[in-house]
């Protein structure tokens, strides 16, 4: 999957945007794949937009941990809270 994202979002193609909804329900395997894609697509024209309901997540939810981990690897990740 990571190689696929790299190929379709190389510098000669239009940017790729992937929107994933309800990430609070994502299982551990899915979160691992998302983290791998983000890590491998750092230099490509790829944007992942994810949404989740933070009122259904704990502070140590796997999504929160994944965001923190990919930020440590240099991935530009921003959380925007909408009330």
Strand content: 5-15%
Order of helices and strands: HEHEH
**Number of helices in the DSSP assignment:** 3
In terms of quaternary structure, the protein is single chain
- Indicate the mean pLDDT: 84
Main β-sheet description: 2 strands, parallel
| Rounded Rg | 13 Å
Please state the overall shape, judged from the principal axes of the Cα atoms.
globular
Q: Determine the structural class based on helices, strands and strand pairing.
A: alpha+beta
Helix percent reads 25-40%
Largest beta sheet: strand ordering = 1-2
Overall strand count = 2
- Poorly predicted sequence stretches spanning 5 or more consecutive residues: none
| Distance separating the two termini | 33 Å
Descriptive report:
The structure is a single chain. The longest helix is centred in the middle third of the chain and has 13 residues, at 28-40. The mean pLDDT is 84. α2 links the parallel β1 and β2. The protein has helices at residues 2-8, 28-40, 62-72, and strands spanning 16-20, 46-50. It is built from three helices and two strands, in the order αβαβα. Helix content is 37%, strand content 12%. The chain has a two-stranded parallel sheet with strand order 1-2. The chain has 83 residues and is of the alpha+beta class.
């Amino acid at each position: 999957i990571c190689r696929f994202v790299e190929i379709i979002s190389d510098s000669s193609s239009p940017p790729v945007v992937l929107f994933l909804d309800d990430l609070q329900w994502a299982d551990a395997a899915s979160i691992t794949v998302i983290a791998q894609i983000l890590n491998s697509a750092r230099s490509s024209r790829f944007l992942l937009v994810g949404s989740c309901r933070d009122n259904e997540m704990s502070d140590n939810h796997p999504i929160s941990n994944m965001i923190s981990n990919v930020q440590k690897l240099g991935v530009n990740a921003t959380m925007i809270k909408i009330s």
